[in-house]
Amino acid sequence: MKAPTIAAAPATPALSRIRTVIVDDEPAARRGVRLLLERDGGVDIVGEASGGAEAAELIARERPQLAFLDVQMPGCDGFQALVRAGIEHAPAVIFVTAYDEHALRAFEVNAVDYLLKPYDDARFAAALQRAKDEVRRREADTVNTRLHQLLDYLQHTPLPATSPEYASDRILLKSSGEIFFLKAEEIDWIEAEGDYMKFHVGGRAHLMRETMARLEARLDPKRFIRIHRSTIVNIERLRKLSPSFAGEYAVILHDGTKLKLSRGYHERIAVLLKQAL
Length: 277
Prior knowledge:
The chain is 33% helix and 29% strand. The protein is α/β, with parallel strands linked by helices.
């Protein structure tokens, strides 16, 4: 392999650098990969190994996000090394080998790329970029899963027995990969949308996977009122009732939003009006 001449990449914050290992039974091959990686600001080399068994221990110990892995090594090949390390520790893998007969098997185990020696700097850079994209995707998927788990826990963990039924004045929901803690008074109105509830908050909308019945049971009836089988409004946002047709009414909010008052919910509005008089 010719001497690497890859240009230095811009520095990358330490927290975002990709933990990487290099595995090859040829010292010169490891050195070539290392030199290329050292010129990239997005990678941290956390270990090297010269054989499959050693590689399995290295991967299990260091938990790298990326591995440059030779296929054909004495005693234990690259595929066996991944099996020994355990699927729970499997990093993104770029196989590096002088033999092309292993290519199909490499992609069958979801390798990011397959570098055939000798390769040039441009081919290495393309493989590395593909690996970076895969690592970032995995990280995003992991964060998203953890957010879902946290949100599910927060939403369904019962309040302490000593707390009033409506002691929690927050609605927790996930939107655009973030968890929002909405104060009840911030919510203008809520509508059902398929398997989700859409919260309208100051001109913005947030979705939460929930049923109307379960959500209504969690909301303080002194603050929220259901006016339709698919609509709940914040009482403080009500501005007026406007005649619609055939004895029906529309509910007008302070921001001008017009919502249908279903006949089956007239009684609830009537109770509210009596309390206001």
